[in-house]
Design a protein that fits this description.
The protein is an alpha+beta fold. It has one domain: SH3 type barrels, CATH 2.30.30. The protein has five helices and five strands; from the N terminus they run ααααβββββα.
């Protein structure tokens, strides 16, 4: 379809909007100021799991957390590792969190109903690693006279 055919097509009633094409073009400057995700500082947090809603909320945060957690099961056993998935069902019995234990390569699925306690015990590996933090370091290095400044991954512990 040529440009003229496209305009005619857009004004013939087949387009999704009756506004002129120029009015439907996105303003790039407005798109670039959209707020990003804010991560909570929950390292070390031990949430109270008093209700079903408390359990679901805490496990959702565990999924978003970028460090290890410790889950204490109702039988007293503890599992420490990284939560990489969760499956929310209609009941706690139907819902499960999937964790990769730190001392094993076997992935575990633990039903929400089997969880007695949760603790955010591992270091948040992404804390303080925002683009703004990187830019601050960049400008400090540039002001100090460094020449070959690049993005370099930090050493993981």
């Amino acid at each position: 379809m040529s440009g003229t055919e496209h305009i005619n097509h857009a004004t013939s009633g087949h387009a999704t909007s009756s506004a002129p094409v120029a009015d439907r073009v996105a303003d790039v400057d407005k798109l670039e100021v959209v707020e990003g995700t804010t991560h909570e500082a929950i390292e070390g947090w031990i949430p109270e799991l008093a209700s079903e809603d408390d359990i679901r909320t805490a496990l959702e945060k565990a999924f978003d957390y970028r460090g290890d957690v410790t889950i204490t099961r109702k039988d007293g056993t503890k599992v420490e590792g990284y939560v990489f998935d969760r499956r929310a069902g209609t009941t706690l019995q139907d819902s499960a969190v999937r964790i990769l234990p730190i001392n094993s390569t076997t992935k575990l699925a633990i039903p929400y109903s089997d969880i007695a306690a949760l603790a955010f015990t591992g270091r948040d590996t992404a804390a303080g690693k925002t683009f703004e933090a990187w830019m601050k370091k960049y400008w400090e290095k540039k002001a100090a006279g460094e020449k070959s400044i690049g993005i370099e991954a930090e050493v993981l512990e």
